[in-house]
User: Which sequence fits this backbone?
């Protein structure tokens, strides 16, 4: 496992996927230590750091004991593999703990990701699912993954669904930034097995705060495009499943963000319907009059079209179609 000993704010911005945060310095102490270092007052900086960490050492020791018992390898890292990771690493080693330290820290990790991304998708044949909002593309990807297919869930990597409602219902989590998005792309790719056929969902080049790398966009364009269709009733059901576990205030805030695109009276009408729990009417109107006209895939060439009313059956049909196509 990876243990990120940077400050909470650094960890929140981006980290190695799956890493836990055990900060050597909190945000305020890090700021003070950094200011002292920049001013050339190195001894004072070290002294302040030692004073700041001392009260937390018993709890940190307890946490690392748990990690070492639970995992074969515990790897500590900070920003550049310097004072923060080295100090806690040296202390734990002196106490007999079997821990490791990442040379170069998170900066070195990011350098590796940057080198991997351009060539990551070169040998991949992407099969991209396109279709209007609510046709169940993500659910189909989940079913494909259950059946052993390679899947790249771009929305999960971005922690955003790519619209004004993109972050609604995602447990209050912020959309991932570019660094975290790219890390999750690499992590996903590490799970793919031969043959390197990867199913994904058609997205714009930007999803939330993340932008698709050019190499990924090119690989998707060169792949196979499938069209997913579904009845309006099915689509309404999918939207309700994805979004209606959110609180009312979150839904209304998302509707408010539609005002640059729709007239105010219409948006206010939607908001009132949400307050009255007339969800089906709002969803149907938004799908037919707003989303469908905006997402026009007619210019794309599709190798096949699948009617989706059951994600598991559609996934089976796609796999069977791919088998026949490649035989």
Assistant:
């Amino acid at each position: 496992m990876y243990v990120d000993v940077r400050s909470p704010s650094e960890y929140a911005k981006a980290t190695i996927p799956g890493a836990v945060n055990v900060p050597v310095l909190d945000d305020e102490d890090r700021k003070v230590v950094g200011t002292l270092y920049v001013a050339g007052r190195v001894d004072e900086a070290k002294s302040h750091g030692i004073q700041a960490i001392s009260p937390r050492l018993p709890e940190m020791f307890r946490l690392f004991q748990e990690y070492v018992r639970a995992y074969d390898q515990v790897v500590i890292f900070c920003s550049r593999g310097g004072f923060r990771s080295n100090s806690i690493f040296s202390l734990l080693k002196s106490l007999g703990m079997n821990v490791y330290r990442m040379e170069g820290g998170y900066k070195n990790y990011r350098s590796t990701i940057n080198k991997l991304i351009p060539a990551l998708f070169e040998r991949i044949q992407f099969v991209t699912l396109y279709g209007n909002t609510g046709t169940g593309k993500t659910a189909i990807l989940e079913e494909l993954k259950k059946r052993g297919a390679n899947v790249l869930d771009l929305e999960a990597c971005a922690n955003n669904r790519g619209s004004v409602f993109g972050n609604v219902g995602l447990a209050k989590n912020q959309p991932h930034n570019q660094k975290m998005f790219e890390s999750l792309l690499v992590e996903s790719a590490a799970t793919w097995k031969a043959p390197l056929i990867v199913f994904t969902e058609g997205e714009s080049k930007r999803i939330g705060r993340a932008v698709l790398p050019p190499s990924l966009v090119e690989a998707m364009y060169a792949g196979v495009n499938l069209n997913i269709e579904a009845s309006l009733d099915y689509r309404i059901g999918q939207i309700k499943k994805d979004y209606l576990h959110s609180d009312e205030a979150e839904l209304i805030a998302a509707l408010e963000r539609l005002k640059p695109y729709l007239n105010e009276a219409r948006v206010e009408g939607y908001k009132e319907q949400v307050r009255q729990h007339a969800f089906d009417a709002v969803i149907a109107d938004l799908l037919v009059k707003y989303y469908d006209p905006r997402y026009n895939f007619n210019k794309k060439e599709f190798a096949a079209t699948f009617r989706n009313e059951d994600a598991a059956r559609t996934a089976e049909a796609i796999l069977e179609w791919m088998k026949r196509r490649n035989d």
Notes: The domain at 2-112 is CATH 3.40.250.10 (Oxidized Rhodanese; domain 1). The chain has two domains: 2-112, 121-326. The longest helix spans residues 105-120.
